Amino acid sequence: MSVLQELVAGIGVPNFKVLIPEIIILLTALIVFVIELLTKARVLITAVTAVGLFLAAIPTLTMEQGDITFYGLYIVDSFSLTFKFFLILSTFFVVIVLRPYLESKNTYYGEYYYLILFALLGMMMMVSAPNLVTFYMGVELASITIYILAGMFKKDYLSKEGAFKYLIMGGTGTAIISYGIALVYGRTGSFDFSTIADSITQNSLDVGAVAGIVLIIIGLGLKASSVPFHFWTPDAYQGAPTPITAFMAVAAKIATFAVILRVMVEAFPFAYEIWNLGWALLAAASMIFGNFVALRQDNVKRMLAYSSVAHSGYILAALAAPTDAAFAALIFYSLVYIFMGLGGFIFLSALERQYNWSNHIDDFRGLAKRSPMLALFMLIFMFSLLGIPPTVGFFGKLGIFMALIGSDIWWLAVVLVIMSIVSAGYYLRVVIYMYMHEPKSSARFNLSLGEAFTLAFMATFVLILGVYPTIFWDISSILGNLLIQGVGR
């Protein structure tokens, strides 16, 4: 046996078969980088990115079983595979609407595409992290690339301002997380989730462990744009190119919710009295502040930014009730938010390409008379974000509400209901402007094929899942149970 063979036999070889989606994304990013460097062929760059995403999505659906690989630093299980599929799906829809938008704004850069892929790779690392080191690396890779994406809008002051605020606040959040990880490691002697959970079980919590958990919650709360760590969100969302805003508000946020759930359940399952109260307070503050400030917005894009803060509160409220029903509700809401969140922002992206469209509420006057189908799409997205049946947003909020009631957390359930009613003030305002006012212009809208397909797809799924949510709910329940069963694996 050669020296190389002895080394391989001694340390083992990572199972690269379960890393096929990540490998495809990485290779696609490198190919796009070379194409952009040598030819700058815009259609080719978009096509290669879209094909790479499609090929990466297939293994997430066909992989028979997962594995813990890279010497315990990377886990590929049903939970991570499910979120990877939806993250790839979200990114695919962003990519197919990105080029027409950038060209209409005279701010096209091929760098957008491979930066998006690297951000996606970081998110995939996040959801596959069984270890605080992997989790931290994934957060950093995703965050740094998104800072750049948010600030690449050519000659746009708001873009630079928003990206700078995001950089400062995001860097602060990353530093807080690293301090929390250091405290947890100092207390438990390990970065591995299962070892941390065992250590906390065998030894009662002390000040160091509690401080570490609190710092990690604060850092993750900032990444999830929960109040009072949300200050970067409105400016970053409004200033960034709208397809990038959709990517930040949906894909990045969903990855954050997934990693929050995994870290809390697998690393700190026996310290839930600490983190359930912390997340409950952050959720309540996010719901209240996000909804009331959204009421005062005349710019619909900024309104949706504050709306996303409120939805972070709705989703994080599930962590106040550490039960399998609450975890299933969190997963369900996270997954269905993709369709209504992407739909709303890509709707704005498509209309921003039209002449003199500024996303001001007055732009929506009489939209139903100018384009009945577009107005119908936006109505579906607004109703779903509000939580009106038969849209899927109703079942998302209902699942969180029932989980809170089942755990006797009445005060937070009441906050959720009241704030959902308050949100009608700004969601229905958009609908009223579209259907009950005369149009300002009779000009027709010209959508690209990707924009039309994306809006139709999202609106259709919002309605289908609103009528028949069983499949997604069953998937969410299974994933929640698997997460609980994996404690101390």
Molecular structure report:
It is an enzyme of class 7 (translocase). The chain crosses the membrane at residues 20-38, 43-61, 81-100, 112-129, 135-154, 166-187, 207-232, 244-265, 277-296, 303-321, 327-351, 372-389, 409-428, 449-473. InterPro entries: NADH-Q_OxRdtase_suN/2 (IPR010096), ND/Mrp_TM (IPR001750). Residues 129-421 form the NADH:quinone oxidoreductase/Mrp antiporter transmembrane domain. It is a multi-pass membrane protein. There is one protein chain. The chain has 489 residues and is mainly α. The chain has one domain (10-485). Helices cover 75% and strands 1% of the residues. It has 20 helices and 2 strands. The chain has helices at 3-11, 20-38, 42-62, 78-104, 111-127, 132-150, 157-188, 193-202, 207-223, 233-239, 242-267, 272-294, 300-316, 324-352, 367-370, 372-386, 392-406, 410-435, 449-467, 470-485; strands spanning 67-69, 74-76. The protein has a two-stranded antiparallel ribbon. Strand 1 and strand 2 (74-76) form a beta hairpin. The chain starts with a helix and ends with a helix.
